[in-house]
Amino acid sequence: MQLILEKRSDRSAFFALASPFLALLFTLIFGAVMFALLGINPLNGLYVYFIEPLTQVWSLEQLVVKATPLVLIGVGLAVCYRANVWNIGAEGQLTMGAIAGSIAPVLFPNWQDPSILIVMLAAGTLGGALFGLIPGLLRTRFNANEILTSLMLVYVAQLFLDWLVRGPWRDPKGYNFPVTKSFEGWQLLPTFGGTIHLGTLFALLACAALALLMEKTLKGFEIKVTGTAPRAGRFAGFSRDRMILFCFLLSGGLAGLAGICEVTSVIGKLQPQISPGYGFAAIIVAFLGRLNPVGVLFAGLLLALSYIGGEAAQVSLGISDKIAKVFQGVLLFFILSCDTLILYRFKFITRRVPALAVAE
Amino acid sequence: MKKFMMTVATAAIALGLGATASLAEKYKACWVYVGPVGDGGYTFQHDVGRKQVEKELGDKVETVFVESVAEADADRSIERLARDGCKLIFTTSFGFMEPTLKVAAKFPDVKFEHATGYKTAPNVATYNAKFHEGRYILGQIAAKLSKTGTAGYIVSFPIPEVVSGINSFMLGAQSVKPDFKVKIVWVNSWFDPGKEADAAKVLLSQGADITVQHTDSTAALQIAQEQGKLGFGQSSDMIKFAPKAQLTAIVDSWGPYYVERVKAAMDGTWKSQQSWEGMKEGLVTMAPYTNMPEDVAKMAAATQADITSGKLNPFTGPITKQDGTVVGEAGKPLPDGDILGMNWYVKGVDDKLPQ
Amino acid sequence: MDQTLAVLVTIATAATPLLLTAIGELVVERSGVLNLGVEGMMVMGAVAGFAVALVTGSTLLGIAAAMLAGIAMSLLFAVLTLTLVANQVASGLALTLLGLGLSGLIGETFVGQPGLKLPTVLGIDGLVPFSLLLTVTVSYVLFKTKVGLIIRAVGNNHHSAHALGYRVIVLRYLCVMFGGACAGLAGAYLSLAYTSQWIENMSAGRGWIALALVVFASWRPLRTLLGAYLFGAVSILGFVVQAMGLGIPSQFLSALPYLVTIAALVIISGNKRLTRANTPACLAQSFVPDR
Question: pTM higher than 0.90 for the full model?
Answer without folding.
Answer: no
